[in-house]
Amino acid sequence: MSGDAKNGAVIAAESGSEAHEAAYPVAFSGIMGLFKPASGTMPARDLAVLFLAPWGIDELCTRKFFRIIAETLAEDGIASLRFDYPGTANALDAPEAVIDVASWTDAAIAGAEALRNLSGAANVVVLGFGLGAAIALRASERADLAGLALLAPVVAGRRYLRELSVWSAVVDEGVGVAPHMRDTAPGTIAGLSMPQSIVATLSTLTADAFADSRAEHVFFAARPDNTSDRQLRDRLAEGAATMRDFVFRGYDKLVSNPLGQEIPADFLDAFPDWLKSLAAYQAPIKNPPAPPSGPAVLTAGTIRETALRFGPGGRLIGTLSELATGGGDATVVLLTTGYDHQGGWARSGVDLARRLAANGITAFRFDSAGVGDSPPVPGRREEVLYDETQIDDMAAVGEFLDDNGRTGPALLFGRCSGAYVAFRAAAADARWAGCIVVNPYAFRWLKPPSAEIVNSAPRALGDYSQKALKLDTIRRLFSGDIDMRAAARNIGQRVAQRLSKRLAPLLGPLLATERLERAVHADFRALSQRAGRTCLVYSVDDPGLDNLYVHFGNAVEGLAAYPNITLHILPDTDHNVTPRVSREQLFDIVEQAATSLSRTR
After folding, report:
1. What is the pLDDT of residue 326?
2. What is the pLDDT confidence band of residue 11, given thresholds at 50, 70 and 90?
3. Vertex 578, ends 577 and 581: CA angle to 5°?
4. How far apart are alpha carbons 410 and 557 in whole angstroms?
5. What pLDDT does 386 receive?
6. Quick one: pLDDT at residue 464?
7. DSSP track, 539-599
8. Residues 6+ apart with CB under 8 A from 250
9. Confidence of residue 12 (pLDDT cuts 50, 70, 90)
10. How many other C-beta atoms are found inside a 10 Å radius of the C-beta of residue 92?
11. 242 phi-psi bin (left φ>0, alpha ψ -120 to 50, beta other)
């Protein structure tokens, strides 16, 4: 996709003059979903779209994509519903639940019926992406659908599992998971493990399995030069009344990395155009139902979860996790990064929230503006990593907690850019009793960071010196795989930090770095006086440690001045804290801090 196309369609959709409302949380058949009603100047049409997500890291990458499509369709009078399958993302699963292809297909069929009731539209089109396209085809064998939209469908199961295994190794290498800490079980990627019953089904899946699909109208988004896509497309064309072909050229840039991904703008034109060509679109709904009112509530086992909209204009999406019988007065607020939705990397946000809730500590997780299911705020930059304006969302969180009786002490928790927002918000507002910050690259910035900087945070100087002598590094240097400009900039930044530290006694606040240093220590002073702990948690070789050493010394001796601040170093893990054993260590730290806060009351 060209830069012009992206800047034209996608940024216009994301950064219009008016903020979008978030979708409405709903509950159906024991499943949480997000319903987006028709909201344009055009009357609601007798056509609605059900979204079926892909699996694993593809789900993380397409969360924002699905939200943007839903908002685009709403402007054309088309309602939609999106949800998470049992066992994935934000789904609340009963302890005894069986999670397999049949349960996911049942969820899709229940979703289609719920969408009809919510929208008033009799005609439902199912959009499935990746593995979601296979579920859409299964559902079409049992449900009466107006059409199917299949995006990069998974139909060659063995090939998909092989590709997933290769891609898993690439992701682990990319995020820095040590080889001996990697999970190589079939169907595992980025700390997520596919249910084994689904792995077993995929191992026998072929295009022949979809011979009974009854879809008459098909929108087929095929990846360029993909044989499996072409074979399925040709098979479906034999029985379909109409087939709309779309070349999914933006597929790789959409799903290869949630950080800095590109949304395929041409799809945002082609898919709505196809929907408008269907006969069902021509009929408006005379009396569409009113949008749902209030939050959506589900209980499974001992846990109750409430999904809701909050903030100005209902623009933010969040989930409250608590004991069904009621918990204590302490709350832990879980922040997203600039690209992980509230489910969290490796589903860590969900797992942590429910672990806390099971121990009587209420947890609230949410998508900040422009992340996951929360629409962006006009005027803010598109790249929200380490964006100061994200701190504004914390005022809305505090107001929501207060309005709902959660007036007790609260800790903020965040990783990476979420850690930065958690630290800055907690230091600035005494409403927050403390914070747990995981691998923050910085505590403050001299000036707002560029997208280039936040996408390529400088490594520690020691890391550069060690790598410089390795033969593999030399080979990559001559092959052009290493960005020398970025490396030189990063090394220069590290050297400048250390030089400024030495000059500070002579020049004092004349140095911008010294003014920054004093502001950081003022933040730590404020946090050290709060009722709750502030925990700094770092992976053992995280780049953010170098900034910590700049502020507090190579032995971190300067932290001794702040008795309520604790430092934890997680061994054998990466920046994202991907390995399960490392996540459990992190959860222990959070639970201890939250339990300690509860005892101070």
Report:
1. 82
2. very low
3. 85
4. 28
5. 83
6. 39
7. ETT-THHHHHHHHH-TT-GGGGG-TTEEEEEESS--TT--SHHHHHHHHHHHHHHHHHHHH
8. 1, 262, 263, 264, 265, 266, 267
9. very low
10. 24
11. beta
Whether the pLDDT of residue 469 is over 60: the answer is no
Q: What is the pLDDT of residue 384?
A: 75
CB count within 10 Å of CB 502 equals 8
pLDDT of amino acid 474: 46
C-alpha torsion 351→352→355→361, nearest 10: -140
Distance CA 124, CA 46 (A): 9
* C-alpha torsion 414→417→419→420, nearest 10: -150
CA distance 322 to 457: 36
Query: How many angstroms separate the CA atoms of 189 and 163, rounded?
Result: 11
C-alpha span between 247 and 265 (Å, rounded): 13
Starting at the earlier edge strand, list the strands of the sheet with 217-222. Answer: 24-28, 31-36, 79-83, 48-52, 124-129, 147-151, 217-222, 242-247
- The predicted-structure confidence for 484-526, as pLDDT tens digits, reads as follows 555 555 555 555 556 566 655 655 566 778 888 999 999 999 9
pLDDT in tens, 32-80: 999 999 997 889 999 999 999 999 999 999 999 999 999 999 999 999 9
Instruction: Give the DSSP H or E segment for 494.
Output: helix 484-507
Query: Does 127 score more than 50 pLDDT?
Result: yes
If residue 82 lies in a helix (H) or strand (E), which one and from where to where?
A: strand 79-83
DSSP class of residue 45?
A: B
CA angle 344, 129, 190 (to 5 degrees): 35
What is the C-alpha to C-alpha distance for residues 400 and 420, in angstroms, rounded to an integer? 21
Do 16 and 75 touch, CB atoms closer than 8 A?
no
Q: Are 68 and 265 in contact (CB under 8 A)?
A: no
Instruction: Give the chain's radius of gyration (CA, Å).
Output: 25
Condensed to tens digits (0 to 9), the pLDDT of residues 514-573 reads 888 999 999 999 999 999 999 999 999 999 999 999 999 999 999 999 999 999 999 999
Backbone angles phi, psi at 52, to 5 degrees: -120, 120
Q: Are strands 331-334 and 410-415 parallel, antiparallel or unpaired?
A: parallel
pLDDT averaged over every residue in the chain: 88
How much is the pLDDT for 71?
96
The structure tokens listed for 12 are: 């216009």
Helix (H, G, I), strand (E, B) or coil at 328: coil
Q: Copy the structure tokens of residue 224.
A: 């360029």
| CA–CA distance, 397 with 403 (Å, rounded to integer) | 10
Q: Which two tokens mark 223?
A: 């990846």
Instruction: Please identify which residue in the block is written with the tokens 């402007």.
Output: 75
- In order, the DSSP letters of 191-220 are TEE--HHHHHHHTT--GGGGTT---SEEEE
SS3 44: coil
